[in-house]
Design a protein that fits this description.
- It is globular, with a radius of gyration of 19 Å.
- Helix 3 crosses helix 4.
- The longest helix has 21 residues.
- It contains eleven helices and eight strands.
- The protein is α/β, with parallel strands linked by helices.
- Strands 1-2-4-3-5-6-7-8 form an eight-stranded mixed sheet.
Length: about 325
């Protein structure tokens, strides 16, 4: 499918990628969204907490939302999306990935960029309810990569899944990791590492035989974290094996439903291979929009509705099944 021309043209201040990223992550607030939590027990005895929000009238349309690295279903980019979709006739199921709902998960394993089995369990749980006719997926950063991998790795998808939008996606995880380790992203990397190490210390209390003090003190970078914990906890050889197997880039060619990727050109988290122009040109179901601005999960918009929120709603409306 031809590359989508973007219309995103924010005010001058938001043409700075770092400002856009920081504003969206630390300054923006979304109010007046009521969420109801459901705990889903997974097949391996662990759990996911799902935060539901509803439109004012009965609907048969649902959007499933997935957050990014160390995010939650209460981050403004999730609540902002849920609120707009609710106002537009969609119910929303916002997934807290394992260990991200404010309570440590039970098992030694956690979440990661390619854990599509958890998304599949949520979808199967929803399908069993037989409540919705159409299901849409929207993910951010890590969550976007997970959704694209889910769509492309399966020979068949549930028929009710209609379309997907993925925002600020590290389609090539190794490429993105190298960007995060660069000087320009040192503050972001430190923040991510701080949160990840806090959770790892919680894991150590539950599984002292699997995580040592030496392991924790040896983690200097995000790649070290993936070498020492992510890969071992999720049956990968090392960080590079994890990045290779879980990057969505290799699965884009087999995506068979309409899917839109929105990756800003000034996103400091993304390397060149995270902009899959060739893959989009060869797959008529894959749409790629690369605005000049937006930062990482930024995309400021008027009336506290971000551009990526408006764009996702428009995309889903454009591709919805005809009555």
């Amino acid at each position: 499918m031809p590359i989508v021309k973007s219309t995103y043209d924010p005010p001058l201040l938001f043409k700075n990628g770092h400002f856009s990223t920081i504003y969206a992550g630390l300054v923006r607030q979304v109010n007046n969204l009521a969420q109801k939590r459901e705990r889903l027990i997974l097949s391996d005895t662990d759990f996911l907490d799902l935060d539901w929000s509803y439109t004012n009238k009965q609907t048969d349309r649902l959007v499933i939302l997935l957050h990014g690295l160390e995010g939650t279903a209460q981050r403004p980019y999730i609540t902002g999306s849920a609120k707009l979709f609710n106002l537009s006739g969609f119910d929303a199921c916002s997934i807290n990935l394992r260990g991200c709902s404010g309570e440590p998960n039970i098992l030694f394993r956690s979440y990661h960029s390619g854990a599509t089995e958890d998304l599949d369990e949520v979808i199967q749980h929803i399908l069993e309810q037989k409540r919705y006719r159409s299901i849409y997926l929207k993910g951010f950063s890590l969550g976007g990569n997970l959704i694209l991998k889910y769509l492309g790795e399966r020979p068949t998808l549930p028929k009710k899944i209609q379309a997907a939008v993925a925002v600020s996606v590290p389609c090539d995880l190794h490429s993105s990791c190298k960007q995060l380790l660069s000087r320009k992203n040192i503050l972001y990397a430190k923040r991510f590492k701080k949160h990840l190490l806090k959770k790892l210390r919680q894991k150590q209390k539950l599984f002292p035989e699997k995580i040592t003090d030496t392991d924790i003190t040896s983690i200097k970078t995000l790649k070290d974290f993936d070498d020492i914990y992510t890969s071992k906890a999720h049956n990968f050889k090392d960080a590079l094996d994890y990045y290779t197997k879980c990057s969505s880039l290799q699965y884009l060619k087999t995506i068979s439903i309409p899917a839109l990727i929105i990756n800003a050109k000034d996103d400091s988290f993304l390397g060149d291979s995270c902009y899959p122009y060739k893959e989009a040109e060869k797959n008529r179901k894959l749409f790629l929009e690369t605005p000049n601005f937006g930062g990482h999960v930024g995309f400021w918009g008027r009336n506290n509705i971000s551009y990526s929120e408006q764009r996702a709603l428009q995309f889903f409306e454009d591709v919805k099944p005809k009555p």
